[in-house]
Amino acid sequence: MSELRLTTLTLPTAPVGPVNPLPPLFTGADLHQVEDAGEADEEMRHNIGYGRVPSVMPYLVQDGYTRDRSPAEHPVAVLENDTLRATFLLGAGGRLWSLVHKPTGRELLFRNPVFQPANLALRGAWLAGGVEWNIGTIGHAPTTCEPLHAARLTRPDGTPVLRMWEYERIRGVVFQIDAYLPDDSRVLLVHVRITNPRDTAVPMYWWSNTAVPEAPDVRVLAPADAAWQFSYDRRIRRVALPAPDGTDLSRTTLSRDAADYFFDVPADRRGWVTALDASGRGLVQASTGRLRGRKLFLWGQGEGGRHWQEWLSGPGSGYLEIQAGLARTQLEHLPMPAGARWSWIEAYGLLEADPAAVHGDDWAAAREAALDGLDRLVPQHVLDAELEAAAHWVDHRPDEPLQAGSGWGALEERRRARAGQSPLPVPGAPFPDSTLGPEQAPWLELLDHGRIATADPRQAPASYQIDPAWEEQLRADTGWPALLHLGVLRAHVGDLDGARENWRRSIEVRPTAWAWRNLAALAARTGDLTEAARAYREALRLAPGLVPLVLESACLLIRAGAAAEALALLTALPAADRALGRVRWAEARAALDSGDPERCGRLLREGIELADVREGESSLHELWFAHQRATGGAAPGLPLPRAYDFRMLTADSAD
Question: Which of 105, 282, 364, 528 is the most buried (most CB within 10 A)?
Answer without folding.
Answer: 282
